[in-house]
Design goal:
Elements: H1 8-18, H2 25-35, H3 38-49, H4 59-72, E1 74-78, H5 86-89, E2 97-102, E3 111-116, H6 122-137, E4 141-144, H7 150-157, E5 163-166, H8 180-189, E6 191-194, H9 206-217, E7 220-224, H10 231-241, E8 245-248, H11 259-266, E9 270-271, H12 275-282, H13 308-321, H14 329-336, H15 340-353, E10 356-358, E11 364-366
Helix pairs in contact: 1-3, 1-4, 2-3, 2-15, 6-7, 9-10, 13-14, 13-15
């Protein structure tokens, strides 16, 4: 993706497209690849969705959102813009746009995430605060999710040196309310990040998306106290998928809050006991290399109109391959027997029409409602 700063109208169109129902990061990426601009993609949506009524938010609503963000001091960053964090841009697919309340400069420093149990022990919270403070002193920005327990302790420990919280709701939504004071302190001294519109209140389904951004922003994820089945382990799984370092603090086998950490260590996560262990894991990691086409490279245009019949046939084939269990897209493409371009176009249409559900990491599943 070539880096460039969007004009007001271009960013407005990016927001309109990304706020359209069923247009997630995968669909957004594929639409831009196919139609080149968000404006052209918006014009093409009715035919792809096979419906005449418009589902795209009106221009007036998006411009009102942009004005509200500007009045609040919230920066809306598109994935192609230089201010967008490099590590997050390297995630496939990355959030098309994020909103940042506070400092954006700390997102361009080396970042490390600290996550863990909401119902954390006193010793776990103390360790999180200590590690965060020492990471900040070593030049790292600490990333977490502003939840109770480990998250809040990590943010508090790094408040003076730089910390950022990824929110499940909009950048103006304080959750949980008990962290309101910390939220306001971070708005002044750190950063609050969201991919949701202002005013949006998070639901349970939004937190996996939040966790994916936490790991995506970071060079590595440090897990301090996590139950065997917890949202914290979802963050660790995303980190592995994104080729990030996973580190875990060991705990007593008698404490259910540390069983997830011990299991991660058994599976190959780095065992950490102090800041030196963490620095040793992170110091040799290089920033992601962003591949951009050279000026002399001209990719052949694909004949989408001529491929319509093949796309329709691929839809039927892929529909039979899908199940309610999310499956990697590459596996579906391989089994479909169609080219990547045809199969991707078919899955895009299935997502937009509601036949399929696409997870934040790109896995695709049959929509049980259809």
């Amino acid at each position: 993706m070539q880096q460039r700063t969007l004009s007001f109208s271009e960013k407005r169109d990016w927001l309109r497209l990304s706020r359209t129902p069923r247009v997630g990061p995968v669909a957004f990426r594929d639409l831009i690849a196919r139609y080149k601009t968000a404006s052209a993609a918006i014009d093409a949506l009715p035919s792809i969705m096979r419906r005449k009524e418009s589902v795209v938010p009106p221009i007036e609503a998006i411009e009102a959102e942009m004005e509200q963000a500007d009045n609040m001091g919230v920066k809306v960053l598109a994935a192609c813009e230089p201010e967008y964090p490099a590590y997050l841009r390297a995630v496939d697919p990355c959030p098309p746009l994020i909103s940042v309340l506070g400092r954006t400069d700390i997102l361009h420093k080396p970042c490390a995430a600290i996550v863990g149990s909401r119902n954390a022990s006193a010793i776990g919270q103390r360790f999180a605060r200590q590690i965060a403070s020492e990471l900040g002193a070593a030049g790292y920005t600490v990333i977490s999710g502003l939840a109770r327990g480990i998250d809040a302790s990590a943010h508090a420990g790094a408040l003076q040196t730089g910390t950022a919280a990824v929110l499940g709701g909009g950048a103006d939504h304080i959750y949980p309310r008990q962290n309101a004071e910390l939220y306001h302190a971070m708005a002044e001294q750190g950063a609050l990040i969201s991919e949701s519109p202002l005013g949006y209140r998070a639901t349970a389904r939004d937190f996996p998306r939040r966790n994916r951004i936490i790991s995506g922003l970071s060079m590595g994820v440090i897990v301090i106290e996590a139950a065997e089945r917890s949202g914290t382990l979802i963050t660790a799984r995303y980190a592995l998928e994104q080729n990030r370092e996973v580190m875990a603090a060991p705990g007593s086998p008698l404490d259910p809050r540390t069983k997830g950490c011990n299991k991660l260590i058994q599976q190959g996560a780095a065992l950490i006991e102090n800041i030196d262990d963490i620095i040793a894991c992170l110091e040799n990691i290089r920033p992601p290399q962003m591949m951009e086409p050279s000026e002399g490279f001209n990719q052949a245009e694909f004949d989408w109109a001529g491929a319509k019949d093949d796309i329709d046939k691929a839809r039927d084939t892929i529909l039979n391959l899908l199940s309610p269990t999310p499956t990697p897209r590459d596996e579906i493409i391989r089994h479909s027997g169609y080219s990547t371009a045809i199969a991707t176009a078919a899955m895009l249409e299935m997502e937009l029409s509601g036949d399929a559900i696409v997870e934040p990491d790109g896995r695709i599943a049959l929509n049980p409602e259809f």
